Amino acid sequence: MMGSIPQLVEKLIESGQAAVLAKVIHVEGSAYRKEGAWMFFLEDGSRIGMLSGGCLENDLQSRTKEMFRTGSVKICEFDLRAEDDLGWGRGAGCNGVVTVMLRDVDAIFNESLGFLSEQLKQGRPVQFVQSLENEYGFCFASSSEKRGTLTKFFSIAEMHPFQHSAGRKWIKDEFFYHQWIWPAPSLYLFGAGADARPFAALATSVGYSVNVCDWRESNCTQEHFPTAVSFNIGPIHELLNRITFTELDSVVIMTHDFQADQQILQTLQNQKLLYAGLLGSKKRTERLLDHPIPEWLHSPIGLSIGADGPEEIAVSIIAEMIAVRKRRTICTSLASI
Questions:
Q1: With 0-12 CB in 10 A as exposed, 13-18 as middle and 19+ as buried, what is 110?
Q2: What's domain 186-336's architecture?
Q3: For the chain, how are helix, strand and coil distributed in percent, rounded to 5?
Q4: DSSP reduced 3-state for 23
Q5: Do 178 and 128 touch, CB atoms closer than 8 A?
Q6: If pLDDT is split at 50, 70 and 90, which confidence band does 84 have?
Q7: Is the whole model's pTM more than 0.85, yes or no?
Q8: Is cis: bond before 125, omega within 30 of 0?
């Protein structure tokens, strides 16, 4: 499991095991994962997450064997630029140098991870600051609280929602590793038909908290949507009145019901959302709205990759959602990719 940081931390807490955190703190050149990638090595030999395509993990695991329950910290540098079998990693050829920090999850850091998990569940982004001059100095800070061993207070700088920000920097004349950790983005999926199931599963796998909304109780089950965090069942207008949307939320509409879609769009036009998409043709959407499709609505939904069938359509939608979330320019044709 690669997973987002909220998912990784939750899995670690559930395991109850001693662990070592491995995080990428610097990349020179290109690499499989960017600065800010995390994974955990557990005492029983299992792993949560991944930092590479497999070329780093075995070496890192061997280095963690003597670290459990010691409170120790190590910094490891891997040169993956060699392309022949004489180079490190048997010709990984990633053309980059990757620096990884290993940290035993001792009592203090474990308590701080619990704080991180609670803040993320409450929808609060958290800054992680790690001293690179005193490797035992760290701090997790939300808008109201902080945990860790650094005594200095670090103010919360403004960031665009879900913007990737991680790396080494000078703060107040000291060298630190700094990272924003965002809560799992909430996705409200309107429509619990059979074609929504692979989409919900894929959305969860890339870090979304999926909330299923439908008027058909028989469709809204754990059997059909095993990864959903909630089921909202009832008439569409009642569901819309119960949900409080935020600018960090995404909405995908797959009801296949003309009147239901109209009700949802009427509500969403007054909301500020991270992403809103509607399944269906451009002509159908214009009929629903009775005017041209506005910029805030992605319809037809998903990237234009020639997708066919529920699984491929799910891939195209998720790809578009990730591009919007990370503020990437969306390619509109295969020729421009």
A1: middle
A2: 3-Layer(aba) Sandwich (3.40)
A3: 25, 25, 50
A4: strand
A5: yes
A6: low
A7: no
A8: no
